[in-house]
Amino acid sequence: MASLPTSLGQLRSAIAAGTVKHRPxxxxxxxxxxxxxxxxDTLFPGIIGYDESVVPQIVxxxxxxxxxxxxxxxxxxxxxxxxxxxxxxxxxxxxxxxxEIHDDPLSPLCAACRARARTEGDDVAIGWLSxxxxxxxxxxxxxxxxxxxxxxxDPIKAARTGLHLADELTMHYGLLPRANRGIFAINExxxxxxxxxxxxxxxxxxxxxxxxxxxxxLPLDVLMVFSANPEDYTARGKIITPLKDRIGSEIxxxxxxxxxxxxxxxxxxxxMKRSGGIDLVIPDFVREIVEEVAFQARxxxxxxxxxxxxxxxxxxxxxxxxxxxxxxxxAASEPVAVPRVTDVYAAxxxxxxxxxxxxxxxxxxxxxxxxxIIRSAVGSVFNGTFVDADTARVAEWFDLGGTLxxxxxxxxxxxxxxxxxxxxxxxxxxxxxxxxxAPEPLRAAxxxxxxxxxxxxxxxxxxxxxxxSGAEQPRRQTRNVQAEGMLDRELPLRGDxxxxxx
Length: 502
Prior knowledge:
The chain is of the alpha/beta class. The protein contains 22 helices and 18 strands. It has helices at about 10-15, 25-40, 55-65, 80-85, 110-120, 145-150, 155-160, 175-180, 195-200, 200-205, 230-235, 240-245, 260-270, 285-300, 310-330, 340-345, 360-365, 365-385, 390-400, 410-420, 425-430, 440-455, and strands at about 70, 90-95, 125-130, 135-140, 150-155, 170-175, 180-185, 210, 215-220, 220-230, 250, 280, 335, 405, 460, 465-470, 480, 490. Strands 4-7-10-1-11 form a five-stranded parallel sheet.
């Protein structure tokens, strides 16, 4: 910007006049946060469900000028929160142009910038660094070295410049010094080797780092933030105790507490802007079922709780459900694509890779576990939707021998025609909030919901080829009985196994 100072002398005058602020990065973030709190602004746009839990703890950490870590299972928006911290930085700050560590013109750290400041004085040129360039993120992996993180001597630089290896100007700066005057985030901290974690001790406690081979300590100005999965402490690595002790605040994240919070997150993240000339209408009950699948999976004993079930599951699932409805609409030349409950079963590939199974689940198989989770989710949403509805009439039609063959490829018109023979079925679907005058694809989705809901509650049965029929009657346990004067016959067991009744 033309109005910004372009030399060190102009910068000093602007700071004295109060038109440019000059402060450490933690104070900068703290003051900008205070201004947002006073204005009542949203602190972390796009973060849903954390207003009463995680966000207040982050606010406390920032107000305390703490380095902090976010602990949580997969898919709990840890990385997004860390990246959103950059919005609390000033729009631009003055730097020494060309400096790898974004030196402060008023108190440069590196030897080259100090030499320029001594030589040129107040005439030394300055540049301006945007807030986006002040956020540095590193995914911790076992192959990260101390040179990657902190720095090392650079023999090639020494050879090109003709300098001695002990000269400061032959330093190679790592990621941490390059994050000077900004935010440095490390994702999946436990994956960082223990000796590399030791290299972070000084910056967290004393506020400086020392690069190997040089008797120079760099007092960096940086906010350190981390993320980690608690399960990683034992699965792949751990955070060493002295490092944990130096991290100011440990903040726990969590999954959405309610189905509606989860639906809001999924609606925000899922890709629903489809091209192709087909409109998309997603019934509320389909959105609820998709979200309930994640909730049911997190409660299922066959799914590993320590690994967690990511919020990416319902996001990917909804996208796949919509795609199946889109495929059906294209094949049937329908102008509107309306997802059905049947499409959720067709979207198994979006589910099976999103959770880890316990031993019992491995024996059962991922596909079978996913189908049973979907069935539980459908039953839960169906119970909440059809609270006062009388489903006996529809179930009775199937119990009297009626059968119905449907699948996810049937057009809305064909599905409605096929199911018209079932007494009370179309009327019952109105309890899902779909009027009789609604478009055919919506009414077809309602009818499909009723059928799948009754199947989920075991009021009717369904084969693998999607043939609906009457509910299966539970078999009575029997035992062959021999008695004097009686022919061999099977009689039911009752009560004590040693007693038999006829």
